[in-house]
């Protein structure tokens, strides 16, 4: 599209006055998809720039790179706008003007606000999220900022990229499950992403594999050797008393023991073990049961095993 650079020049003219040194490095196609749009997901369209931009511009004063600016905005956005996460919000997908009035927002509202804040100072941004978690009910939405030639995961209020609890939970996803995909909203996407039954789907691209790779790297950087896979085990129904679980090698030697979650513990709590990636078959055995459950490592950083009713596995 030969007209695209000329149109973008006119639309981005306020960003090219020297205030935002990073804006000149943005490719035209990315700017068109991730700076110019006024909507992020399925929120009601509104003209948010006149109200939001004056709140954001002081946050990036003195920043010389987009990376610095993204972190300055993510850490300062709450104070600048007065918005905060709350389950008491009126709806999940507030636009910026609704957020500035109500202040109480969901993770989706936080993502919309952060994406628009980044766009207001010439940083390409978009929303991304997981359709549903593997080990707990619900989903989650966050923002992605584009700089240094790639997309980077960031959340409102975070002081660094790749929020630890999100990375940990992404590592638990079954990347082959259609219900557990990670989507990034973009006008050029060939997927449809619906945030709720009441919303209309938006164009998106499937970025599950990229996040799976990122999560594996995160796990390795945070103490999980590449020789092991984190194994998380649950049992239903749960017992009131702790039950011992053993991880056996192919010769049935015990290599690790732990206790299964009890009925008194949070449903999000799962037993954690380390499953070697080397060797062949391994087994899980519940104390008092003669049955063995064969398991082997998968490519994902985490494997979740759900056991059935005792005493059989």
Written overview of the protein:
- By secondary structure, the chain is α+β, with helices and mostly antiparallel strands.
- The chain has helices spanning 4-11, 28-34, 49-56, 66-81, 96-102, 107-120, 164-170, 208-221, and strands spanning 84-85, 104-105, 125-130, 140-147, 150-154, 182-185, 191-193, 202-206, 228-235, 244-248, 254-259, 271-276, 282-286, 293-295, 302-307.
- It has a 6-stranded antiparallel β-sheet, sandwiched between helices. The chain has a 4-stranded antiparallel β-sheet with strand order 11-10-13-14, with no helix packed on it.
- Helix 3 (49-56) packs across helix 6 and helix 7 (164-170) crosses helix 8.
Provide a short characterization of the protein structure.
The protein is an alpha+beta fold and 313 residues long. Helices cover 26% and strands 24% of the residues.
Could you name the CATH class of the largest domain? Answer: Alpha Beta
CATH topology of the largest domain: C8orf32 fold
Structural class: alpha+beta
- How would you sum up the major sheet? 6 strands, antiparallel
- Which shape, going by the Cα principal axes? elongated
Low-confidence stretches: 1-10
Query: What is the string of helix and strand elements?
Result: HHHHEHEHEEEHEEEHEEEEEEE
Question: What proportion of the residues is helical, as a percent range?
Answer: 25-40%
Whole-number count of domains: 2
Q: Please give the CATH architecture of the largest domain.
A: Roll
Number of strands: 15
Separate helix tally:
8
Distance between the termini: 60 Å
**Quaternary arrangement of the chains shown?**
single chain
Proportion of residues in β-strands: 15-25%
């Amino acid at each position: 599209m030969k007209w695209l650079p000329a149109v973008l020049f006119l639309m981005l003219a306020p960003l090219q006055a020297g205030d935002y040194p990073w804006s000149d490095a943005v490719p035209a196609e990315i700017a068109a998809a991730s700076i110019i749009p006024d909507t992020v997901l399925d929120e009601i369209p509104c003209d948010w720039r006149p109200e939001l931009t004056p709140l954001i511009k002081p946050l990036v004063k003195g920043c010389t790179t987009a990376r610095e600016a993204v972190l300055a905005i993510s850490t300062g956005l709450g104070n600048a706008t007065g918005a905060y996460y709350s389950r008491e919000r009126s709806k999940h997908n507030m636009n910026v003007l609704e957020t500035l009035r109500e202040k109480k927002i969901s993770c989706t509202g936080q993502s919309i606000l952060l994406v628009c804040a980044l766009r207001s100072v010439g940083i390409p941004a978009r929303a991304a999220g997981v359709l549903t978690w593997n080990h707990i009910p619900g989903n989650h939405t966050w923002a992605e900022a584009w700089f240094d030639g790639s997309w980077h995961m960031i959340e409102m209020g975070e002081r660094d990229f790749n929020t630890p609890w999100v990375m940990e939970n992404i590592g638990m996803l079954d990347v082959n499950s259609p219900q557990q995909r990670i989507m990034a909203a973009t006008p050029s996407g060939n997927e449809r992403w619906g945030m709720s039954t009441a919303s209309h789907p938006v164009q998106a691209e499937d970025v599950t594999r990229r996040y799976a790779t990122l999560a594996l790297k995160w796990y390795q950087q945070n103490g999980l050797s590449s020789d092991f896979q984190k194994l998380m085990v649950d049992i239903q129904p749960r017992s009131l008393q702790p039950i011992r679980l053993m991880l056996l090698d192919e010769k049935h030697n015990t290599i690790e023991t732990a206790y299964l979650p009890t009925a008194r513990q949070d449903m999000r709590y799962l037993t954690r073990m380390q499953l070697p990636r080397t060797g062949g078959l391994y087994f899980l055995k519940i104390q008092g049961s003669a049955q063995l459950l064969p398991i082997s490592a998968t490519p994902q950083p985490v494997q979740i095993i759900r056991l059935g009713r005792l005493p059989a596995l």
